[in-house]
Amino acid sequence: MHILQCNPKYYPLQLDEKYPHVLERIVKLWNKSSGEDYLNDLLKPTYSGGRHQREGFPEKVWDEIFFLLTLYKKPRPKPIEENDTSKDKESGIFSFLINAFAGSKAK
């Protein structure tokens, strides 16, 4: 099922269906300082993380990732550092994305 619980109209459906592991990683990194770097790397035709060359994502998936990057750059609570083990560190993305998806796409 869907990782995020938001309006289906704004849900990154293609990303979830074709690359669920990528969406899961975005969720895990959402409130971390490395989240923006990860999203930027995903938008490059080849991933710069030391792994093999990649062709990039289909256009609809790329658009969804770009939209998530746009949301990531919006003001929100301070990023949580990588070594933080609190259980609440992922919860911020859910309320933020639910509100942001509804507000950003409605314009």
Report on the architecture of this protein.
With 107 residues, the protein is an all-alpha fold. It is built from 5 helices and no strands. It has helices at residues 13-18, 20-29, 35-42, 59-72, 91-105. The longest helix is centred in the C-terminal third of the chain and has 15 residues, at 91-105. The N and C termini lie far apart (27 Å). The mean pLDDT is 74.
What are the main properties of this structure?
single chain, 5 helices, mainly alpha, 0% strand, 107 residues, globular
- Whole-number tally of structural domains: 1
Uncertain ranges:
none
CA gyration radius, whole angstroms: 14 Å
Q: Globular, elongated, flat, extended or rod-shaped: what is the shape?
A: globular
Order of helices and strands: HHHHH
Measured by DSSP, the beta-strand proportion falls in under 5%
Helix content: 40-55%
List the helices and strands and how they pair.
Elements (H helix, E strand, L loop, with lengths): L12 H6 L1 H10 L5 H8 L16 H14 L18 H15 L2
Short description:
With 107 residues, the protein is an all-alpha fold. The protein has helices at 13-18, 20-29, 35-42, 59-72, 91-105.
